[in-house]
Amino acid sequence: METNMKATLCEHTLDNAYLAHPDLRGAIVHSDRGRQYTSETYRQALSKYGIIQSMNSDGGRCHDNARCESMWARMKSELLYDRYNTESLTTDELRVLILEIFHQLLEQQEDLLCQRWASSYD
């Protein structure tokens, strides 16, 4: 998480994704036509990992990315803004809060999987 949308942020995201999931070759990354996604260095990073770039067909067509944008807006509303006063947080505090929320969600999913697994042996 950064306070800007520079190409280097997008490249670091690709690097981190590859470190976590080395089998990304052939994956498709969809984005809008922002400068950070059309930069030569970002396109080279995609090529390096064998990732296919997908963009909306014409600049300014928001509908291509509408479902993804809607999901992020809903997530921010339900998990952050409705529960926490984020306006008073620094960027670092917000970063920690988001990590804590995702950690809690992962623990909940893990608990559900364990319960489902245990009940299948009853």
Automatic annotation (TrEMBL):
Pfam families: rve
Transmembrane segments: none
Domain Integrase catalytic: 2-57
Listed GO MF terms: nucleic acid binding
GO BP terms in the entry: DNA integration
Organism field: human gut metagenome
PANTHER family for this protein: TRANSPOSASE INSF FOR INSERTION SEQUENCE IS3B-RELATED, TRANSPOSASE INSO FOR INSERTION SEQUENCE ELEMENT IS911B-RELATED
Descriptive protein name: Transposase InsK for insertion sequence
